[in-house]
Task: inverse folding
């Protein structure tokens, strides 16, 4: 039971990192990774390679799935010298970003530099993405209609 | 008879060089960049992605540039590129209810939760050409104000509370399919077609064709009495199950436009009357296409809802077979390719028919003269 919990906690942590890396531009990831100093040697296991993911929607927004159309995706898998494997998947065609993201995912899983990656890579990128989302929400909020009723007549 | 004809090579090579020259235009002007197209002609890029059925903004912008702004040619280029790529898999269905929306309007409820959020719309502009855009005047940032964080409740969910609208899935929710019934990019079309396949075809269908068909339903050719229940534009997360990890990760967000049409009633002796629904979902920001798609989706449900099929927009085979503009342009434009031998055969035929006609006339007038 405790093992399963630890596993799901590790999965959640890795998912958080991979989600933020996928959402972030390659140059921002590279700038954050530079703060980690020299990255460990890694062997490419697969890719980086560009392919397609069929994006699905739901009929009526909440019904059965249908195929909306495909999206271009880049993925990469690397192995560190110690044997730890890291994967990356992201929309777009940025091979360098996929490679670097896979290395960072492998380093996170390896564990030795997990705290550094969380502080130097995950935290600033997550904050930047949250800022973007909040800016869009605030800009949209400024275009929300505030209805008011005109009072007619004297009384 | 097949006659091989050669000799066009130099002409073709020079025609392509001339195309490149005309595409570049006046060399004293800077060449337009793909980044500029993505940022400043974003809706053109969105249309190319939607109808090419491939979400890839930089590639769509490159296609627009290469096609000199010819949208269908750009769509064709992106479709062709798509065929060179392997398919890694399929995403989980995107959750449009959790969209980071830039726009959400409803024509059915004024004060719905989350409100009427206009977003970057052309509506309410006066459609006067703006001379300021000829130059490069500084543009101020979009205004912002604190968001109340109220969730954008779906209009269908509001109506569903009173059971006044059909559910998106009619059967037992626990038996709702988890996979689409097919994929048009993998299997040939067959009619009658399941609604999920029709939606795939409509999502990549030509905007102008769907617009005209949607318009025809409003003008009485298969009327569906629609209300724009809700339109939303914004970004949704694309999540995919990664087998090597054993869990789903996000690939990032894509922009989509969704339209929920609320249409007039269905019901029967057993079922109480309730509103029906048409659905539109399109890559990018394209309200016109999403609305037209929702109208056409609803009118194509005529058979399922027990309505008479009398109008073109209700004819599934007609609509779906002609919605794809790459197929349509291929067949129309192939007429300009050499048909010399075919035409020779027809020329020969018409000459023979003409000779027989003239011979017949001569013999008729001979008989007449003889009779006189």
Result:
């Amino acid at each position: 039971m405790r093992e399963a919990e630890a596993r799901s906690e590790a999965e959640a942590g890795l998912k958080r990192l991979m989600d933020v890396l996928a959402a972030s531009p390659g140059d921002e990831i590279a700038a954050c990774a530079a703060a980690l100093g020299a990255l460990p040697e890694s062997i490419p296991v697969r890719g980086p390679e560009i392919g397609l993911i069929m994006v699905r929607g739901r009929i009526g927004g909440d019904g059965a799935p249908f195929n909306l159309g495909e999206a271009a995706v880049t993925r990469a898998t690397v192995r560190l010298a110690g044997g730890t494997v890291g994967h990356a998947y992201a929309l777009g065609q940025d091979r360098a970003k996929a490679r670097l993201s896979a290395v960072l995912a492998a380093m996170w899983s390896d564990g030795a530099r997990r705290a550094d990656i969380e502080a130097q890579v995950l935290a600033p990128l997550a904050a930047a993405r949250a800022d973007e989302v909040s800016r869009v929400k605030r800009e949209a909020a400024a275009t929300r209609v505030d209805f008011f009723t005109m009072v007619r007549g004297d009384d | 008879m097949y006659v091989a004809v050669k000799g066009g090579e130099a002409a073709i090579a020079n025609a392509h060089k001339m195309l490149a020259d005309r595409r570049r235009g006046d060399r004293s002007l800077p060449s337009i960049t793909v980044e500029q197209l993505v940022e400043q002609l974003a809706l053109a890029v969105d249309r190319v992605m939607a109808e090419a059925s491939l979400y890839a903004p930089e590639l769509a912008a490159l296609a627009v540039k290469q096609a000199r702004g010819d949208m269908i040619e750009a769509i064709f280029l992106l479709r062709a590129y798509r065929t060179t790529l392997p398919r890694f898999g399929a995403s989980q269905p995107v959750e449009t209810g959790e969209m980071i929306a830039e726009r959400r309007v409803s024509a059915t409820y004024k004060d719905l939760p989350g409100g009427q959020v206009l977003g970057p719309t052309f509506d309410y502009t006066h459609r006067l050409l703006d001379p300021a855009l000829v130059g490069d005047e500084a543009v101020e940032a979009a205004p912002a104000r604190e968001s109340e964080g109220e969730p954008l409740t779906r209009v269908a969910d509001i109506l569903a509370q009173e059971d006044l609208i059909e559910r998106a899935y009619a059967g037992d929710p626990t038996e709702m399919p988890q996979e689409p019934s097919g994929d048009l990019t993998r299997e040939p079309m067959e009619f009658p077609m399941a609604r999920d396949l029709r939606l795939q075809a409509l999502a990549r269908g030509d905007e102008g064709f769907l617009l005209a068909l949607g318009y025809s339903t409003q003008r009485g050719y298969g009327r569906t009495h629609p209300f724009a229940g809700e339109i939303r534009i914004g970004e949704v997360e694309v999540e995919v199950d990664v087998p090597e990890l054993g869990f789903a990760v996000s690939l990032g967000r894509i922009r989509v436009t969704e339209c929920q049409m609320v249409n007039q009633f269905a019901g029967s002796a057993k079922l109480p009357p309730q509103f029906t629904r048409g659905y539109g979902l399109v890559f990018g920001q394209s309200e016109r296409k999403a609305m037209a798609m929702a109208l056409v989706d609803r009118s194509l449900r005529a058979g399922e809802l027990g309505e008479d099929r009398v109008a073109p927009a209700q004819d599934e085979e007609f609509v779906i077979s002609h919605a794809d503009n790459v197929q349509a342009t291929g067949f129309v434009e192939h007429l300009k390719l050499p048909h010399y031998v075919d035409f020779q055969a027809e020329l020969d035929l018409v000459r023979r028919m003409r000779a027989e006609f003239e011979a017949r006339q001569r013999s008729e007038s001979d008989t007449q003269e003889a009779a006189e």
